[in-house]
Structures are given as C-alpha cells and as structure tokens.
C-alpha cells in the first residue's frame, strides 16, 4: 500500500471514530418529545430529527410500540405513553438495529416487554455487542395479534441496513417504514454498508412496501406523511443510484464523486464515511 493511501486510511479511521463519538453522544441527553395522534388507536412519539420516531398501537390488552429511541429517552417515552393510555407495553418492535431506534430495549425487557426484530437486525446487534437483544426474530413476515388488533411485519430486502422491517397496521391503513424512508429528505440519508445496507436494492425494497394498501406513513425520522410522499422518495432512490452509477462509469475518482454527493445530495461526513465506498463498489 502506498504511503498516501495509508495516510488517507488513517485519517479516515480517525474521522470515523470522531463521527461515531458524535453520533453516539446524540444519545446522552434526552430528546424533547411530543405525541401526535394519527388514528384513534395509533400515536407517534415524535421529536426533532434524532432519535427516531416511536409509534404506539393501543389495544385493550396492552401496547405495541415500534422503536424505543435511545436508552436515555426511556423515561420520556414512558411519560408520553402515560398521556395516551394506562395499558402496559407488551411488545417493542425494532425497525432496525441502530441505537436511536433500539437503544431502549434493555430497559423495556426489564419491564417484561418482548422485543421483536428481523433476524438480520438481531445479528447486527449481536455483532455490535448492543444490549437488549430481541427475544423474537423474524425472517420474512409475521403477524403480531394483541387485543383483537393485528400488526404485520415485513422484511422486503436491504435498504438502509440489511435488517429493516416495515410494520403495517391494515385496520388503520398505516405503514411504519423505519429508516428506509426519512421524510424531509428527497433521497436516502444514510446507506449503512457496515450494517448491510444497499442503495442498489433500496428501490426494490420500497417497491414491495408500496404494494401494501395504506395511505398514512410514519417515517423513521420526520413528520407523519402520505403514501404519495413515500412514492416520491422511492423515485429519489433511483436518481441517487443512477447518478452514482453514471459517475463510476465515467471513471470519476472517489474524491470527485464524494464532492458531487455533497453538493447534489447534501451528504455530510457521516454519509461520506459510511456510504460512499460501499455505493461506489456496489454500482461499479
Ligand atoms: Zn438508522
């Protein structure tokens, strides 16, 4: 390896360490939370950008909660929940393994809550030595029945990670997307290649989700929105993928493509470190 590449690699690792510190530090102070009523029995515990949204499905036999934010947000979630219902949480579903969606798992399990995730997301948590490993893992599809209600879980393939699941509540015509969709961004915010993500497969994963019958969408981050916005975002995944594919085909360098990603798609340091090499290798 040439000295310049070694230096570049060293800087990359230093930067990566710094970014991860910054990223994990986001979970050191509780986020300011509020609750949005989406349907009579479905609420979103929302906050500004980070951590991820939490969705509450209330039944007369307990609550199904999708995503439990960072560990530090646990008390905040419980306080918001108290405003909605006296029912205890029975199940937490993690849309994927990232700590801003699954960080509260251990505290939930201490309250006798069962955690559900995809097998791939669970494996990522094992690999990352994350606390609060899911008790139940699904491969492709599952139903969670509670108090006469039904939440459907689907794994449609890789996108933001290799373990993203969609949660569909047919009676409410609501789809919860995790970070396969972040409202307010036109294209994927982060392709986590270390976590098995794929910009190439992202579009087909969303295509499968869009076949479901729903009209309201709870994104991984951002405000509750519509199926039409999800379809628009799906088009953005194609734009991003095609652009990188074309640039790689034109034999543009790593740095040139990185610069264009920053100006055209608003990529920051996190995307540069976690998404650029993987996307270039995948679309070569
Ligand atoms: Zn994520």
Q: Provide the CATH top-level class.
A: Alpha Beta
Main beta sheet strand tally, sense and closure: 7 strands, mixed
Hetero compounds: zinc ion
The tally of strands reads: 13
Any guess at the CATH architecture?
Answer: 4-Layer Sandwich
> How many helices in DSSP terms?
10
CATH superfamily: Ribonuclease Z/Hydroxyacylglutathione hydrolase-like
What value does the Rg take, in angstroms? 19 Å
Q: State the shape.
A: globular
Helical coverage, percent range: 25-40%
Q: In order across it, which strands form the biggest sheet?
A: 1-2-3-4-5-6-7
The string of secondary-structure elements, in order, is HEEEEHEHHEHEEEEEHEEHHHH
Structural class: alpha/beta
| Mean residue pLDDT | 92
Strand portion: 15-25%
Structure description:
By secondary structure, the protein is an alpha/beta fold. The protein has one domain: Ribonuclease Z/Hydroxyacylglutathione hydrolase-like (Metallo-beta-lactamase, Chain A, 4-Layer Sandwich). It is built from ten helices and 13 strands. The protein has a seven-stranded mixed β-sheet. Strands 8-9-10-11-12-13 form a six-stranded mixed β-sheet, with helices on one face. Bound molecules: zinc ion. Zinc ion (ZN) binds next to loops.
